[in-house]
Amino acid sequence: MNRLSRRTILAAAPSALVLASPFVARAKNYGPGVTDTEIKIGNTSPYSGPASSYGTIGKAQSAYYKMINEQGGVNGRKINFISYDDAYTPPKAVEMVRKLVEQDQVLFTAATLGTPTNSAIWQYMNQKKVPQLFVATGATKWDDPKGHPWTIGWQPNYQSEGRIYAAYILKEKPDGKIGVLYQNDDFGKDYVKGLKDGLGDKAKLVVLEASYETTDPTVDSQIVDMKAKGVDVFVNTAIPKFAAQAIRKTAEIGWKPLHVLASIGNSVAATLKPAGLDNAKDIVSDFYLKDPNDVQWKDDAGYKEWVAFMDKFYPEGDKSDAGNVYAPSNAATVVQVLKQCGDELTRENVIKQAASLKDFTVPMLLPGVKINTGATDFAPIKQVQMGKFDGTQWRLFGPLIAGAVT
Amino acid sequence: MTAPPEEIAAAKEGLPFAAAPAAGPEAELMVPRVGRIAYRELAIGGAVLAAVILPLVTSSFVTFQLTQVMVYALAILGLNLLTGFNGQFSLGHSAFYGIGAYTAAILMHNYGVFYLWTLPAAGAVCFVVGFLFGLPALRLQNLYLALATFTLATVMPQILKFHGLEAWTGGVQGLVIDQPDPPAFLPVDTDQWLYYVTLAVLLLMFAAASNLIRSRSGRAIMAIRDHPIAAAAMGINLSLYKTLTFGVSALFTGVAGALGALAVAFVAPDSFTIFLSIALLVGLVIGGVGSIPGCLIGGLFVLYVPNIAESVSTGLAGAIYGVILLIVIFAMPAGTAGFARMVFARLARLRRS
Amino acid sequence: MELLLQQIMAGLANGAIYACMALAVVMIFQAIDHLNFAQGEMAMFSTFVAWQFMEWGQNYWVAFVAAVVVSFIAGVLIDRVLFRPIRNAPVLSQVVAFIALFSVFNSSAGQIWNYTIKSFPTPFGHKPLFGISLIDTHEAGMIGVTVLLLLLLYVFFRGTRLGLAMRAAAANPESARLCGIRVGWMTALGWGMAAAIGAVAGILIAPVVFLEPNMMLGVLLYGFAGAVMGGLTSPGGAVVGGFAVGVIENLAGTFIPYFGRELKLSIALIVIVVVLMIRPNGIFGRRIVSRV
Questions:
Q1: 8 Å CB contact of C107 and B319
Q2: Which helix (H) or strand (E) holds A109?
Q3: Predicted ipTM?
Q4: Which of A55, A90, A189 lies closest to B270 in CB terms?
């Protein structure tokens, strides 16, 4: 080895100091859409068209980021949340996401909504190496770090929920005849698959798989069918409108099955009240978020924080819409990722930090539910807890259950 | 001076060039005089030139958007042939668009067919489906036909989601398509290449449609729309022409669907609902029923106006869209082409006086 | 056998909804010779108006009457302001205007009242009818009101001068004018009546399906199908058609193996198209003979 001249050593000294010292600020590294004062985030949501009821999720996220900005932003940078309407159609989603990435130059997208829309942009985002963070759908396929390293889910996926219902049924009524009501699209079919996979070789217990379309006026006929077939375990994976109709019809025809309701339709205000709180007694469901209309959270700190947020930043938002609980929780996770990035705001680091969440919680998550991700684990929220409705509120019982589908 | 009867009839239907007047001052507009430059040909040439240069000077994203505009314009042209020129009301063209798209997707995804061959394949499949649908449709008129085509549009997504066909169609999850690479010897990227492919197909099919309309068959088709009884009395085989027109119309829209699938690189049942049919119908009317160049305006409308509506207000995007539609219909009841025709007619009158 | 009976009853109950809507559809068709795509959304909006009155403290019947009156006036206004200027525009342009209306009503309702489902009261209650659990009192009430409306309309159109004038104005505007009938106002009246009937339909339907901005999407589809199958020239046929659609759909969903469950909507619509093949003007429709 050559003798190092003094000059070389002196020249190298500052760099060595920088590398050695943990107290010196890291160099700033910016990807597209980032300046010293701003971070651009992209999103598409269905603000028009038949799925426009989910548009509130986009609006609530906007409100949340507004709140963060008023509090000073993240590490001194304000968040510029750009959200476009995709009308829940894949071609429009592709167009809007391309606009976000190529024209608006966003750093990443967050909470893009819907399975068909996210499926349409999946390949593009991964080819362009743009993080597709915390997609607002529960499809199982987003947990695929090997095949799609730039895409990460957020909520417990539908198949793992289905398996949890199967496990519960096998425990409570192992010889029951099961009927499942599901929406005839990706999320509905995912629930059914999870349920049947969870039942394993007892899948033949499912005697009736009754689907509905969102254009159906009622699901009364499906309920009548179930009763006629002697179903005594009713797995209800419908969205609030149809879940409520099912609950009401079940009570009307005097049918009393073991009623398992999916998390998507278990809101007290949006589903149970219209169906009739008495009719909903003894229904069992699973939860990962707090229901803001459940009296048990009345004095909960997280709930009060949420109400304050809604009152100040999204007063026109409906407090009985579960989407308005989902949105700020999802957005808070994004903020955490940005905090973890510090000044290293590149796309690579964003997805890396998104895959490095350790025991992170947000105010409206059920107590004990923690967000965890890793290099091979792209399912941030895996835990749910079961609850039973007593006529007034949901009584949580049992341990936190981790969904087991990867 | 009163307008000639063809003009009145044409104005009622909102058609720009319903019948070429044999003589008279109006003829000056339609047929270029010998020795004078033909304005129409010049305009078309200029437009094509601009279209060829555009993707080279603008971003990939805008190129992608323009490709979609052309796809919609072609789909609207298909609808125009059936509804505008033949008077058969169709709410079912989203089904043909979807069949074309899925044909291309299935051939590429499951069988690895070269993408250019999927275009005529999509066209052929749609022609057969359209022709077969046209057979029972012969018995139906107006709103009854509307319901039948509406049925077609509603049935298509259900079939695409049907679990029994999942192995081919990918079911509710849809199919991802790998976009083709441009040929090695051309210095263009994928977006530009798809743009040029779409442009070439568009020009080809617009020319074909133009020729069809100006031929004897075209006149027969339009005669069926205007006076079916008289047409039958004159010996035109109504059944044959109507079903063939259905088939050809489906072919055009099916090819558009295949091109659309290539551009978006994804097909799913949710892309091909009744709302797409309605959007195509709106584009047809805004562009001008019975106008071939109007289809391009229609395509621009279908792609850009929802974006404009949304930029005004996300919460009321649908309402703003509706208001824009109403304003356009009020200002131009006969569509853009009808409006343009009226302007040209006024200019011609000014020139003469 | 019992399942068959149950599904037929359930189908009739659903069919009552469609029949109601089909009646409104045929009503507007008789008045203006066009199909109003926005009929469902207008009905939904009217129902929200009724709901809003109840939120403001009014009782059910006040809200009912208020909503129907407001809808009538709105219908007349929409005709005079929106459709009169484009009366002579091509048919397809008017269709696009309907589509625009649809968009405006749907989007506005979502913005004003949001998308959480709301329960809507019914004067009939939700108890099983005569103890039979197959059909409840509200559904029976709905059928009753629909039939009553049908009778009233029949009496109005056939038995009153105004009704005759409206029919004349729709059938042959030029001749009607020559008889001194103010065709413009007849059309506006028709619009008003159709809007009012739509409001009634919406108020009857909401207790079953729950009130929300997208509640009429499917109902209009089925109502339209029922009306067409019954025959657009026959209000009675439309009502029968509506019931038939409900029953066909339920039976298809329950009894056709393999395809039935997922494809019952498609099957129902295909059945209707087949019926139209056999009777191209609907089951009860009359053939319109036009002079050459």
A1: yes
A2: strand A108-110
A3: 0.88
A4: A90
